[in-house]
Structures are given as C-alpha cells and as structure tokens.
Amino acid sequence: MTAKVRIDKLIDEVIAREGEYSDHPADRGGPTRWGVTERVARAHGYVGEMKRFPREMAVQIYRDLYWHRPGFDAVEGIYERVAEELLDTGINMGPKVASKFLQRALNVLNREGRDYPDVPADGEVGPLTLAALRGFKARRGADGETVLMRAIEGLQAERYIALAEQRPANEAFLYGWIANRVGLS
After folding, report:
1. C-beta separation of 73 from 11 below 8 A
2. Any residues with CB less than 8 A from the CB of 89 and at least 6 apart, and which?
3. Is the pLDDT confidence value at 4 over 90?
4. In what helix (H) or strand (E) does residue 74 lie, and over which residues does it extend?
5. How far are the Cα atoms of 30, 37, 47, 52, 54 from residue 86, in angstroms, in the given order?
6. More confident residue, 182 or 95
7. Residue 185 above 70 pLDDT?
8. Average pLDDT of the residues of the chain
C-alpha cells in the first residue's frame, strides 16, 4: 500500500469514528463536522454553516494539519502503527500533545540514555525525535512498536481521565474517548 493510500484510509477511518455533525452542549469545541471544529474550519477559510462543512475540506485539513505539518508522515517510515496512533491522538488532543506522548515514551524507554539520547518533550517531531525513534527501533526491533504503542496509549488514557477529573462535564465523553481512541492499533 502506498503512503498516499494509507493516509487516505486512515483519514477515512477517523471520519467514520467522528461522524457527521455534532454540537454537544458539554463540548468546548462547539459545532463540529467530520471531527473538525468550527474554529479549525474557519481558520482554513470555511465561512458556511458547519452542518454543511464539506468532507473534502476535512480530509485536506487532516492531511495538512494533522499528518504532514507535525511530521507524523516521517514517523510512518519508521513505525506505521505509531504514526497512525499519533494521527488519531493528534486529531483528538492536538498534534503537540500526541508528539509529546511519543517523546516522553521514548525518553523513558531509552534505558537512561544508553540506547539513544533523551529528546526535548517539546511537541515537535523533528530530527532529534526521529533519531530517537530510529534508535529505539534499532534496539527493540519490530516488537518494540507494540511496547511503544502501549506507552503512548497509557499516556493518552491518563490524560482523558485527568480531563474528566478536572472538568466533570467531560465525563460525558470519557467512555467514548477510551472506547474509541485508546488501543485502536
């Protein structure tokens, strides 16, 4: 499968999970369609009613803002499933949060720097993060992807729980977040 076909398939899966239009009173994101908030749609030039936000525009936003810009496409060349998880987490929590999960996990899985140096947990997947990911793969191989995925998903689940603890209105979403976001890969 080519990289373009893979990202198209991943975006289709995200859109299927997100559904069409939503405007839940407890959702701070406000009106969304295809999982894209009104704020993000407007920032990308959409001026119409969110109920009519075109799917094609959502696909382009996901590809540009949540795949290429944060560098998750570069992660795909090292570990495909990790890249998929970063895309999904980035869409739901923001690409910087997803990137920090990866960086934090890499930093505690490097055996105190013996396998590769720590990287700044700055939310930017750049050359240092990619070098650490390559170092992790060189040390742990293909099986390491499963462990790295579990670490990232553990951080994701903990963040969802913390969000619900900090803002009880988020409890309306917690079950779905964990059921539909954690452990998908």
Report:
1. no
2. 97, 98, 101, 152, 156, 181
3. no
4. helix 72-76
5. 23, 19, 29, 28, 24
6. 95
7. no
8. 93
